[in-house]
Amino acid sequence: MAEEELHYASIVFKNKNSSRSEVKKEEETVYDQVKVRNDGQTAELVPDKKADGRSFQYQHLACLGTFCVILLLGIIAFVIYSNKVTNLTAGNQNLQLKNQQLEALNDNLTDINTNLTTENENLKRDNRNLTQAYIVLDNKVTNLTAGNQNLQIQNQQLETDKKNLTAQLQNMEKAEMALNISRAQWTYDQYCRINTGGMCQGCQNGWLPSGSNCYAVNNPPPVNQTSWEAAREDCRGKISDLVVVVNGNEKDYVREKSWHIDGVNPGYWLGLRVKDGKWKWVDGSNLTDLSWIQQLPATEGQCAISVPSNGWKSVSCNEKKGWMCKKKGLTL
């Protein structure tokens, strides 16, 4: 092989964005030794020492710039991250506060819901009670309506009865007027016309006057005598009643008029009998002087008779006796 040959050339690398003067001053790299091998390998460029120093500085500057850019980006990212964390922390606190407020609101709403549920149950119960009360009242109204209709019917019937009673009353007043006229005529006939000379007297013909009273002594034969009840009915038919003795003078008068009948002294019924264990007159008063009656104590079913020789006597009300009636005389 022949000895290797060395060829030297100057190679300059230029930046497209730089001016020619700047390329010459700063970015010019000169390779002084270029050795070409004949063995077919690629040619190797060997820089000189001055070019190597500049390249190293450029690399450091590039690395420093890159680091600065990265650092700046990191700072920016950190600031952004810090702001986001701060915002998220504040937002989280706000959310926690809102969550607490929502929980308190939820508790209040729960209480309100519980109260509303209770009120709803109470309202339902009240509604059921009111419904039942309404049904009861409706039934009462129905019954009252029916009762009112019945009362209206009864009122109409009463109005009809009132008219009938009014007509009957008018007829009775007319009849009473006619009866009074008839009584007045009867009184005149009995107390005046029948008597001798047309003079009016206080007692009817056949009645015995004594004071302001008139007495009728009924002394039929024994076969026509009657019980105490029948005797009283006879007196009532004569607008009078059995004798009620009010004092001793009247007692003596009644005893004097207790005549014998067919030679015997059977006695005459008085208006005195035992009622409710007491001696009572037919006018409802009690016998005040018990010494007037011989038999004591009072026994139910006993009535009093007047006997001339023995005063008053208690006998069975069913015995047959005469009787004595009494009524007020006519006031002239």
Automatic annotation (TrEMBL):
InterPro entries: C-type_lectin-like (IPR001304), C-type_lectin-like/link_sf (IPR016186), C-type_lectin_CS (IPR018378), C-type_Lectin_Receptor_IMM (IPR051379), CTDL_fold (IPR016187). Keywords: Coiled coil, Disulfide bond, Lectin, Membrane, Transmembrane, Transmembrane helix. Residues 210-326 form the C-type lectin domain. It comes from the Eukaryota. GO terms for molecular function: carbohydrate binding. Residues 85-182 form a coiled coil. Signal peptide: none annotated. The chain crosses the membrane at residues 61-81. This is C-type lectin domain family 10 member A-like isoform X11. The gene is LOC114449142.
